[in-house]
Amino acid sequence: MNRFFSKMESGEMSLGVWLKGGPSWVSTIARAGFDFVRPDMMFSAIDWRELDHINRSAQVAGIACWVRVAANPWLGGIDQLQVTVDVARAFSLGIPIVGASVSSAAQARACVAVSKDWHRSGTGEYPNSDSSFAAMNSKPANMAIFVPHVEAATAIEEVDEILEIDGLRIIMLAMTDLSDALGYPFQYDHPEVWKRVDQIVAKARSRNVIVAANSGYAFTTPEQIAGRVKRMYEHGIRICLMQGADSLFENLAKSVIGDVRGAIGS
After folding, report:
1. Global pTM?
2. Residue 26 and residue 208: Cα distance in Å, rounded?
3. Which sign does the torsion angle of CA 252, 254, 256, 257 carry?
4. What one-character-per-residue DSSP string does 92-115 give?
5. Distance CA 90, CA 52 (A)
6. Which of 141, 197, 184, 185 minimizes the C-alpha distance to 1?
7. How many CB atoms lie within 10 A of CB 175?
8. Which are the contacts of 99, defined by CB distance < 8 A and separation ≥ 6?
9. Which of 112, 135, 138, 259 is packed most tightly, with the most Cβ within 10 A?
């Protein structure tokens, strides 16, 4: 069991970053101490072959791979179920955690159902008997988890219904778009935003669902990020997506470059 799932079971905070590409990032991310990596197929050039390499690198490094497949929760329509195709494909590669930005409880419910499907052929698993087929239909709980990403206004309106879905284990709050949908764009710490988050966390706890959220773009220094994650933890969030690997590098590099240029008077 990798450390992401160990922390899920113990109630500790799991920390991860997203990737726009590059399997070579994964071992660095693991050595830095993160618990998971989230390749983002929604807003990047990552293709399925590269995703497969990222997932296999994560397995070797001992961290979890959590992919967000492409979706459009704002314009796709609440009854559109095309997203389940890519969710099923991601699970077939053996990726343990698959997320998608959903626009409705109906989409989330269909994707959770996909997570229970037996197809894992991309990992070299093929049933060859009644018993092996039965085993593939009763996968361990940490083998295939679908995570609805809530950021569209329609999904926020149906979040209570989403949390009632049987088999849901994690729900992800995309804080930038969620704050915007609530009428407080980029105001991550606005009292009304926290009020809605607290309501979701309370409902989730009653259903034994873990709440994940991203830290937000406004926090760029180590001190700001640490303070933000601490507040998230205090509000009951137990999985934090701490920006992107490239974003973290950019912000750190700006500070280092500034110090270097100051030291040499350039």
Report:
1. 0.93
2. 30
3. positive
4. HTT-SEEEEEESSHHHHHHHHHHH
5. 9
6. 141
7. 23
8. 38, 66, 67, 68, 69, 146, 147, 148, 149, 172
9. 112
Q: Which tokens belong to 11?
A: 């109630």
Radius of gyration of the chain, Cα coordinates, nearest whole angstrom: 19
Rounded CA separation 116/15 (Å): 26
**Which pair of structure tokens corresponds to residue 39?**
């390749």
Q: Digits of tens for pLDDT over the chain (266 positions)?
A: 788 999 999 999 999 999 999 999 999 999 999 999 999 999 999 999 999 999 999 999 999 999 999 999 998 788 889 999 999 999 999 999 999 999 999 999 999 999 988 777 777 778 889 888 887 777 666 679 999 999 999 999 999 999 999 999 999 999 999 999 999 999 999 999 999 999 999 999 999 999 999 999 999 999 999 999 999 999 999 999 998 999 999 998 999 999 999 999 98
Contact by Cβ (8 Å): 241, 219: no
CB 158 within 8 A of CB 88: no
